[in-house]
Amino acid sequence: MRWLRGWRKRGGFAQADLYARATIYALLWLAVALQVMFSVTRPVRHSGAPTALIAASCLLAVAQGVYCTSLASGGLAEYLGQTTLSRRLVAFGAGLMVMSLVAVLVLASAVGLRDFPDAAVMLCAAVMPFTMTHSLIVRKRVSALVQLGALVAVCGAVLLLGGDRQLVGACIAGMVCGPAWYAITTRCSAWHLGVMWKLHEAKDVEARLAVAEERLRFGRDLHDVMGRNLAVIALKSELAVQLARRGRPEAVDQMTEVQRMAHEAHREVRDVVRGYRGVDLATELGGAQGVLEAAGIECTVTGPPDGLPADVQSALGWVVREAATNVLRHGDARRCTVAVARSASGATLTVENDGAVGGSGSGASPGTGLAGLRERLTAVDGTLTAGPAPGWRFRLTAEVPLPDTARADPTSAMRTSAPGAAAEAAEESAAETTEEATA
Prior knowledge:
Blueprint: H1 2-9, H2 12-39, H3 42-45, H4 51-79, H5 87-111, H6 119-134, H7 140-160, H8 165-245, H9 250-274, H10 281-294, E1 298-302, H11 310-329, E2 335-342, E3 346-353, H12 368-378, E4 383-389, E5 393-401, H13 404-408, H14 421-438
Parallel strand pairs: 1-2
Antiparallel strand pairs: 2-3, 3-5, 4-5
Protein backbone atom coordinates (compact mmCIF):
# COMPACT_ATOMS: atom_id res chain seq x y z
CA MET A 1 0.00 0.00 0.00
CA ARG A 2 2.99 2.30 -0.36
CA TRP A 3 1.64 3.77 -3.59
CA LEU A 4 -1.60 4.69 -1.79
CA ARG A 5 0.33 6.41 0.98
CA GLY A 6 2.43 8.25 -1.57
CA TRP A 7 -0.76 9.33 -3.34
CA ARG A 8 -2.23 10.71 -0.11
CA LYS A 9 0.96 12.64 0.59
CA ARG A 10 0.46 14.64 -2.57
CA GLY A 11 -1.65 17.77 -2.64
CA GLY A 12 -4.70 18.23 -4.84
CA PHE A 13 -2.79 19.84 -7.68
CA ALA A 14 0.00 17.23 -7.55
CA GLN A 15 -2.61 14.47 -7.70
CA ALA A 16 -4.30 16.03 -10.75
CA ASP A 17 -0.93 16.50 -12.48
CA LEU A 18 0.11 12.91 -11.83
CA TYR A 19 -3.28 11.57 -12.97
CA ALA A 20 -3.18 13.48 -16.28
CA ARG A 21 0.39 12.46 -17.09
CA ALA A 22 -0.19 8.85 -16.04
CA THR A 23 -3.26 8.67 -18.30
CA ILE A 24 -1.31 9.89 -21.33
CA TYR A 25 1.66 7.61 -20.69
CA ALA A 26 -0.60 4.60 -20.06
CA LEU A 27 -2.45 5.10 -23.35
CA LEU A 28 0.86 5.50 -25.18
CA TRP A 29 2.35 2.29 -23.83
CA LEU A 30 -0.90 0.43 -24.38
CA ALA A 31 -0.45 1.09 -28.10
CA VAL A 32 3.16 -0.12 -27.89
CA ALA A 33 2.04 -3.28 -26.10
CA LEU A 34 -0.57 -3.98 -28.81
CA GLN A 35 2.00 -3.71 -31.59
CA VAL A 36 4.49 -5.95 -29.77
CA MET A 37 1.84 -8.49 -28.83
CA PHE A 38 0.42 -8.87 -32.34
CA SER A 39 3.95 -9.06 -33.75
CA VAL A 40 4.52 -12.36 -31.93
CA THR A 41 1.06 -13.93 -32.17
CA ARG A 42 0.41 -17.33 -33.71
CA PRO A 43 -0.27 -16.21 -37.33
CA VAL A 44 3.08 -14.42 -37.40
CA ARG A 45 5.03 -17.21 -35.69
CA HIS A 46 3.64 -19.95 -37.95
CA SER A 47 3.83 -18.00 -41.20
CA GLY A 48 7.56 -18.36 -41.66
CA ALA A 49 8.16 -14.64 -41.37
CA PRO A 50 11.83 -13.78 -40.78
CA THR A 51 12.77 -13.52 -37.12
CA ALA A 52 14.73 -10.36 -37.82
CA LEU A 53 11.58 -8.74 -39.21
CA ILE A 54 9.58 -9.67 -36.10
CA ALA A 55 12.34 -8.37 -33.86
CA ALA A 56 12.54 -5.14 -35.87
CA SER A 57 8.80 -4.54 -35.45
CA CYS A 58 9.02 -5.08 -31.67
CA LEU A 59 12.15 -2.97 -31.23
CA LEU A 60 10.78 -0.10 -33.28
CA ALA A 61 7.56 -0.17 -31.25
CA VAL A 62 9.49 0.02 -27.96
CA ALA A 63 11.83 2.71 -29.33
CA GLN A 64 8.86 4.78 -30.44
CA GLY A 65 7.26 4.31 -27.02
CA VAL A 66 10.36 5.49 -25.17
CA TYR A 67 10.92 8.46 -27.44
CA CYS A 68 7.26 9.51 -27.55
CA THR A 69 7.10 9.37 -23.74
CA SER A 70 9.79 12.03 -23.61
CA LEU A 71 8.09 13.86 -26.46
CA ALA A 72 4.77 13.82 -24.57
CA SER A 73 6.43 15.36 -21.52
CA GLY A 74 7.83 18.17 -23.68
CA GLY A 75 4.49 18.54 -25.44
CA LEU A 76 2.70 18.99 -22.12
CA ALA A 77 5.25 21.61 -21.10
CA GLU A 78 4.66 23.50 -24.36
CA TYR A 79 0.89 23.19 -24.01
CA LEU A 80 1.13 24.70 -20.51
CA GLY A 81 3.31 27.54 -21.81
CA GLN A 82 6.40 26.49 -19.85
CA THR A 83 8.76 25.88 -22.78
CA THR A 84 8.90 25.39 -26.56
CA LEU A 85 9.53 21.95 -27.99
CA SER A 86 12.11 21.75 -30.77
CA ARG A 87 10.55 20.85 -34.12
CA ARG A 88 13.58 18.69 -34.91
CA LEU A 89 12.58 16.41 -32.05
CA VAL A 90 9.05 16.26 -33.45
CA ALA A 91 10.39 15.41 -36.91
CA PHE A 92 12.50 12.59 -35.46
CA GLY A 93 9.39 11.20 -33.73
CA ALA A 94 7.54 11.30 -37.07
CA GLY A 95 10.42 9.39 -38.64
CA LEU A 96 10.17 6.68 -35.97
CA MET A 97 6.44 6.38 -36.65
CA VAL A 98 7.04 5.95 -40.39
CA MET A 99 9.72 3.31 -39.76
CA SER A 100 7.40 1.45 -37.39
CA LEU A 101 4.59 1.57 -39.97
CA VAL A 102 6.89 0.25 -42.69
CA ALA A 103 8.02 -2.61 -40.43
CA VAL A 104 4.41 -3.56 -39.68
CA LEU A 105 3.43 -3.40 -43.38
CA VAL A 106 6.39 -5.55 -44.42
CA LEU A 107 5.65 -8.03 -41.65
CA ALA A 108 1.95 -8.16 -42.59
CA SER A 109 2.90 -8.63 -46.26
CA ALA A 110 5.23 -11.49 -45.34
CA VAL A 111 2.47 -13.18 -43.36
CA GLY A 112 -0.22 -12.41 -45.94
CA LEU A 113 -2.72 -9.61 -45.49
CA ARG A 114 -5.69 -11.87 -46.21
CA ASP A 115 -4.53 -14.37 -43.56
CA PHE A 116 -3.64 -11.70 -41.00
CA PRO A 117 -6.75 -9.61 -40.06
CA ASP A 118 -5.00 -8.28 -36.95
CA ALA A 119 -2.74 -6.22 -39.20
CA ALA A 120 -5.25 -3.37 -38.95
CA VAL A 121 -4.75 -3.26 -35.17
CA MET A 122 -0.96 -3.26 -35.56
CA LEU A 123 -1.08 -0.44 -38.10
CA CYS A 124 -3.26 1.70 -35.84
CA ALA A 125 -1.03 0.94 -32.85
CA ALA A 126 2.04 2.05 -34.80
CA VAL A 127 0.42 5.43 -35.50
CA MET A 128 -0.98 6.11 -32.02
CA PRO A 129 2.12 7.08 -29.96
CA PHE A 130 3.25 9.89 -32.26
CA THR A 131 -0.16 11.28 -33.26
CA MET A 132 -1.36 11.58 -29.66
CA THR A 133 1.85 13.40 -28.72
CA HIS A 134 1.72 15.58 -31.82
CA SER A 135 -1.81 16.73 -30.91
CA LEU A 136 -0.40 18.54 -27.86
CA ILE A 137 1.82 20.94 -29.84
CA VAL A 138 -0.36 21.82 -32.84
CA ARG A 139 -3.80 23.25 -33.33
CA LYS A 140 -6.81 20.99 -33.45
CA ARG A 141 -7.25 21.50 -37.19
CA VAL A 142 -3.65 20.56 -37.89
CA SER A 143 -3.99 17.48 -35.69
CA ALA A 144 -7.13 16.44 -37.58
CA LEU A 145 -5.33 16.85 -40.93
CA VAL A 146 -2.42 14.73 -39.69
CA GLN A 147 -4.87 12.03 -38.57
CA LEU A 148 -6.56 12.14 -41.99
CA GLY A 149 -3.21 11.94 -43.77
CA ALA A 150 -2.18 8.93 -41.71
CA LEU A 151 -5.51 7.24 -42.50
CA VAL A 152 -5.09 7.79 -46.24
CA ALA A 153 -1.48 6.59 -46.15
CA VAL A 154 -2.31 3.41 -44.23
CA CYS A 155 -5.32 2.52 -46.37
CA GLY A 156 -3.39 3.22 -49.57
CA ALA A 157 -0.49 1.03 -48.45
CA VAL A 158 -2.86 -1.80 -47.56
CA LEU A 159 -4.51 -1.63 -51.00
CA LEU A 160 -1.13 -1.59 -52.74
CA LEU A 161 -0.03 -4.67 -50.83
CA GLY A 162 -3.11 -6.59 -51.88
CA GLY A 163 -5.43 -6.05 -48.98
CA ASP A 164 -9.16 -6.54 -49.50
CA ARG A 165 -12.00 -4.13 -48.75
CA GLN A 166 -12.71 -5.77 -45.43
CA LEU A 167 -9.16 -5.07 -44.21
CA VAL A 168 -9.35 -1.48 -45.52
CA GLY A 169 -12.63 -0.99 -43.67
CA ALA A 170 -11.04 -2.37 -40.51
CA CYS A 171 -8.15 0.08 -40.92
CA ILE A 172 -10.59 2.99 -41.32
CA ALA A 173 -12.56 1.95 -38.23
CA GLY A 174 -9.36 1.37 -36.29
CA MET A 175 -7.89 4.75 -37.22
CA VAL A 176 -11.08 6.52 -36.19
CA CYS A 177 -11.51 4.62 -32.92
CA GLY A 178 -7.79 4.40 -32.17
CA PRO A 179 -5.43 7.31 -33.00
CA ALA A 180 -8.25 9.86 -33.28
CA TRP A 181 -9.71 8.88 -29.92
CA TYR A 182 -6.23 8.84 -28.39
CA ALA A 183 -5.56 12.36 -29.66
CA ILE A 184 -8.87 13.67 -28.28
CA THR A 185 -8.25 12.03 -24.90
CA THR A 186 -4.72 13.42 -24.73
CA ARG A 187 -5.90 16.90 -25.63
CA CYS A 188 -8.66 16.79 -22.99
CA SER A 189 -6.20 15.60 -20.32
CA ALA A 190 -3.82 18.41 -21.21
CA TRP A 191 -6.66 20.95 -21.08
CA HIS A 192 -7.69 19.72 -17.64
CA LEU A 193 -4.09 19.94 -16.46
CA GLY A 194 -3.83 23.47 -17.88
CA VAL A 195 -6.89 24.55 -15.89
CA MET A 196 -5.36 23.08 -12.74
CA TRP A 197 -2.10 24.94 -13.43
CA LYS A 198 -3.97 28.24 -13.71
CA LEU A 199 -5.81 27.56 -10.45
CA HIS A 200 -2.52 26.67 -8.76
CA GLU A 201 -0.89 29.87 -10.00
CA ALA A 202 -3.91 31.89 -8.84
CA LYS A 203 -3.60 30.33 -5.40
CA ASP A 204 0.09 31.28 -5.27
CA VAL A 205 -0.77 34.85 -6.25
CA GLU A 206 -3.46 34.92 -3.57
CA ALA A 207 -0.96 33.74 -0.98
CA ARG A 208 1.56 36.38 -2.05
CA LEU A 209 -1.12 39.04 -1.82
CA ALA A 210 -1.99 37.85 1.68
CA VAL A 211 1.67 38.13 2.69
CA ALA A 212 1.85 41.59 1.11
CA GLU A 213 -1.24 42.59 3.09
CA GLU A 214 0.49 41.38 6.23
CA ARG A 215 3.50 43.54 5.42
CA LEU A 216 1.22 46.53 4.91
CA ARG A 217 -0.31 45.78 8.26
CA PHE A 218 3.14 45.83 9.84
CA GLY A 219 3.79 49.15 8.11
CA ARG A 220 0.58 50.54 9.59
CA ASP A 221 1.67 49.40 13.04
CA LEU A 222 4.98 51.19 12.59
CA HIS A 223 3.15 54.30 11.40
CA ASP A 224 0.86 54.20 14.42
CA VAL A 225 3.84 54.04 16.75
CA MET A 226 5.93 56.73 15.09
CA GLY A 227 3.28 59.09 13.74
CA ARG A 228 1.86 60.41 17.00
CA ASN A 229 5.20 60.51 18.79
CA LEU A 230 6.85 62.45 15.98
CA ALA A 231 3.92 64.87 15.84
CA VAL A 232 4.20 65.55 19.58
CA ILE A 233 8.00 65.90 19.33
CA ALA A 234 7.62 68.43 16.51
CA LEU A 235 5.00 70.37 18.46
CA LYS A 236 7.09 70.50 21.61
CA SER A 237 10.19 71.47 19.64
CA GLU A 238 8.36 74.42 18.11
CA LEU A 239 7.12 75.39 21.54
CA ALA A 240 10.64 75.17 22.97
CA VAL A 241 11.93 77.43 20.15
CA GLN A 242 9.27 80.04 20.92
CA LEU A 243 9.97 79.91 24.64
CA ALA A 244 13.74 80.12 24.04
CA ARG A 245 13.31 83.19 21.83
CA ARG A 246 11.36 84.88 24.63
CA GLY A 247 14.01 83.90 27.14
CA ARG A 248 11.65 81.83 29.27
CA PRO A 249 13.14 78.97 31.34
CA GLU A 250 10.31 76.59 30.41
CA ALA A 251 12.14 75.93 27.13
CA VAL A 252 14.56 73.61 28.96
CA ASP A 253 11.68 71.58 30.36
CA GLN A 254 10.14 71.24 26.90
CA MET A 255 13.42 70.05 25.36
CA THR A 256 13.83 67.58 28.19
CA GLU A 257 10.38 66.26 27.37
CA VAL A 258 11.34 66.07 23.69
CA GLN A 259 14.40 64.04 24.61
CA ARG A 260 12.33 61.69 26.73
CA MET A 261 9.76 61.15 23.98
CA ALA A 262 12.50 60.56 21.40
CA HIS A 263 13.93 57.78 23.58
CA GLU A 264 10.43 56.39 24.07
CA ALA A 265 9.80 56.40 20.29
CA HIS A 266 13.12 54.66 19.71
CA ARG A 267 12.20 51.96 22.20
CA GLU A 268 8.75 51.45 20.65
CA VAL A 269 10.26 51.12 17.17
CA ARG A 270 12.63 48.43 18.42
CA ASP A 271 9.69 46.69 20.07
CA VAL A 272 7.78 46.71 16.79
CA VAL A 273 10.75 45.33 14.86
CA ARG A 274 11.41 42.63 17.43
CA GLY A 275 7.75 41.74 17.66
CA TYR A 276 7.25 42.55 21.35
CA ARG A 277 4.71 45.27 20.82
CA GLY A 278 1.29 44.43 22.22
CA VAL A 279 -0.92 42.54 19.78
CA ASP A 280 -4.60 41.86 20.31
CA LEU A 281 -5.07 38.10 20.08
CA ALA A 282 -8.75 38.32 19.10
CA THR A 283 -7.88 40.66 16.23
CA GLU A 284 -5.12 38.33 15.03
CA LEU A 285 -7.45 35.32 15.14
CA GLY A 286 -10.09 37.13 13.12
CA GLY A 287 -7.51 38.40 10.63
CA ALA A 288 -5.97 34.94 10.16
CA GLN A 289 -9.39 33.38 9.62
CA GLY A 290 -10.30 36.02 7.04
CA VAL A 291 -7.01 35.68 5.14
CA LEU A 292 -7.14 31.86 5.05
CA GLU A 293 -10.77 31.76 3.94
CA ALA A 294 -9.99 34.32 1.23
CA ALA A 295 -7.32 31.89 -0.03
CA GLY A 296 -9.87 29.05 -0.22
CA ILE A 297 -8.83 27.34 3.03
CA GLU A 298 -11.58 26.43 5.47
CA CYS A 299 -10.57 27.89 8.84
CA THR A 300 -12.21 27.18 12.21
CA VAL A 301 -11.33 29.20 15.34
CA THR A 302 -12.33 27.88 18.77
CA GLY A 303 -11.69 29.07 22.30
CA PRO A 304 -12.16 32.60 23.67
CA PRO A 305 -8.90 34.61 23.89
CA ASP A 306 -10.27 36.99 26.54
CA GLY A 307 -8.74 37.26 29.99
CA LEU A 308 -5.12 36.65 29.03
CA PRO A 309 -2.34 39.07 30.06
CA ALA A 310 -1.24 41.59 27.46
CA ASP A 311 2.24 40.06 27.01
CA VAL A 312 0.75 36.58 26.57
CA GLN A 313 -1.75 37.86 24.01
CA SER A 314 1.05 39.60 22.15
CA ALA A 315 3.19 36.46 21.98
CA LEU A 316 0.29 34.21 20.93
CA GLY A 317 -0.90 36.82 18.42
CA TRP A 318 2.46 36.67 16.65
CA VAL A 319 2.24 32.87 16.63
CA VAL A 320 -1.17 33.07 14.93
CA ARG A 321 0.16 35.55 12.37
CA GLU A 322 3.25 33.49 11.49
CA ALA A 323 1.31 30.20 11.44
CA ALA A 324 -1.30 31.61 9.04
CA THR A 325 1.45 32.90 6.76
CA ASN A 326 3.13 29.48 6.72
CA VAL A 327 -0.16 27.73 5.92
CA LEU A 328 -0.55 30.02 2.91
CA ARG A 329 3.02 29.78 1.66
CA HIS A 330 3.80 26.11 2.29
CA GLY A 331 2.03 22.80 1.73
CA ASP A 332 -1.41 22.51 0.11
CA ALA A 333 -3.86 22.91 2.98
CA ARG A 334 -7.61 22.74 2.52
CA ARG A 335 -8.66 22.95 6.19
CA CYS A 336 -7.09 24.66 9.18
CA THR A 337 -8.16 24.78 12.83
CA VAL A 338 -6.98 27.28 15.44
CA ALA A 339 -7.77 26.50 19.07
CA VAL A 340 -7.07 28.60 22.17
CA ALA A 341 -7.29 26.80 25.50
CA ARG A 342 -6.67 28.03 29.04
CA SER A 343 -5.94 25.87 32.05
CA ALA A 344 -4.84 26.43 35.62
CA SER A 345 -1.19 26.36 34.60
CA GLY A 346 -1.18 28.37 31.38
CA ALA A 347 -2.55 29.09 27.92
CA THR A 348 -2.19 26.85 24.86
CA LEU A 349 -2.57 27.79 21.20
CA THR A 350 -2.83 25.00 18.60
CA VAL A 351 -2.78 25.54 14.84
CA GLU A 352 -3.37 22.41 12.74
CA ASN A 353 -3.79 21.99 8.99
CA ASP A 354 -3.99 19.14 6.49
CA GLY A 355 -1.28 20.49 4.18
CA ALA A 356 1.56 18.19 5.29
CA VAL A 357 3.66 17.16 2.26
CA GLY A 358 6.28 14.46 2.39
CA GLY A 359 6.18 14.14 6.13
CA SER A 360 6.40 17.87 6.72
CA GLY A 361 3.94 20.61 6.55
CA SER A 362 3.48 24.28 6.87
CA GLY A 363 6.57 25.65 8.27
CA ALA A 364 8.08 22.29 9.07
CA SER A 365 11.48 23.24 7.72
CA PRO A 366 13.55 25.23 10.18
CA GLY A 367 13.67 28.90 9.29
CA THR A 368 13.60 32.41 10.64
CA GLY A 369 9.82 32.29 11.15
CA LEU A 370 9.76 29.54 13.77
CA ALA A 371 13.02 30.76 15.28
CA GLY A 372 11.50 34.23 15.72
CA LEU A 373 8.40 32.75 17.33
CA ARG A 374 10.50 30.78 19.80
CA GLU A 375 12.35 33.98 20.74
CA ARG A 376 9.08 35.80 21.37
CA LEU A 377 7.70 32.92 23.43
CA THR A 378 10.93 32.67 25.42
CA ALA A 379 10.33 36.23 26.62
CA VAL A 380 7.16 34.99 28.39
CA ASP A 381 8.67 31.58 29.36
CA GLY A 382 6.67 29.86 26.62
CA THR A 383 7.52 26.92 24.36
CA LEU A 384 6.80 26.10 20.73
CA THR A 385 6.53 22.67 19.11
CA ALA A 386 5.87 22.01 15.43
CA GLY A 387 5.77 18.79 13.44
CA PRO A 388 3.66 16.19 11.62
CA ALA A 389 0.46 14.92 13.26
CA PRO A 390 -1.57 11.75 12.57
CA GLY A 391 -3.64 11.75 9.40
CA TRP A 392 -1.08 13.56 7.23
CA ARG A 393 -1.57 16.78 9.14
CA PHE A 394 0.79 19.39 10.53
CA ARG A 395 0.42 20.79 14.04
CA LEU A 396 1.97 23.83 15.69
CA THR A 397 1.50 24.21 19.46
CA ALA A 398 2.48 27.19 21.62
CA GLU A 399 2.27 26.92 25.41
CA VAL A 400 2.67 29.92 27.71
CA PRO A 401 2.52 29.74 31.53
CA LEU A 402 0.32 32.33 33.23
CA PRO A 403 1.48 34.46 36.16
CA ASP A 404 -0.19 33.96 39.53
CA THR A 405 -2.08 37.25 39.26
CA ALA A 406 -3.61 36.24 35.95
CA ARG A 407 -4.68 32.88 37.38
CA ALA A 408 -6.34 34.51 40.34
CA ASP A 409 -8.06 37.32 38.42
CA PRO A 410 -8.31 36.69 34.67
CA THR A 411 -9.76 40.15 34.02
CA SER A 412 -7.06 42.06 35.85
CA ALA A 413 -4.59 41.50 33.06
CA MET A 414 -6.94 43.19 30.61
CA ARG A 415 -7.10 46.44 32.58
CA THR A 416 -4.36 48.16 30.71
CA SER A 417 -4.21 51.60 29.23
CA ALA A 418 -4.88 52.00 25.55
CA PRO A 419 -1.81 52.19 23.30
CA GLY A 420 -0.70 55.75 22.81
CA ALA A 421 -2.35 57.12 25.96
CA ALA A 422 0.92 58.59 27.21
CA ALA A 423 1.48 60.27 23.88
CA GLU A 424 -2.04 61.72 23.95
CA ALA A 425 -1.47 63.12 27.42
CA ALA A 426 1.82 64.63 26.31
CA GLU A 427 0.13 66.14 23.28
CA GLU A 428 -2.60 67.70 25.44
CA SER A 429 0.05 69.07 27.80
CA ALA A 430 1.98 70.53 24.89
CA ALA A 431 -1.17 72.16 23.52
CA GLU A 432 -1.96 73.69 26.91
CA THR A 433 1.59 75.04 27.24
CA THR A 434 1.37 76.46 23.72
CA GLU A 435 -1.79 78.31 24.60
CA GLU A 436 -0.13 79.75 27.73
CA ALA A 437 2.95 80.81 25.74
CA THR A 438 0.92 82.57 23.07
CA ALA A 439 -1.41 84.22 25.56
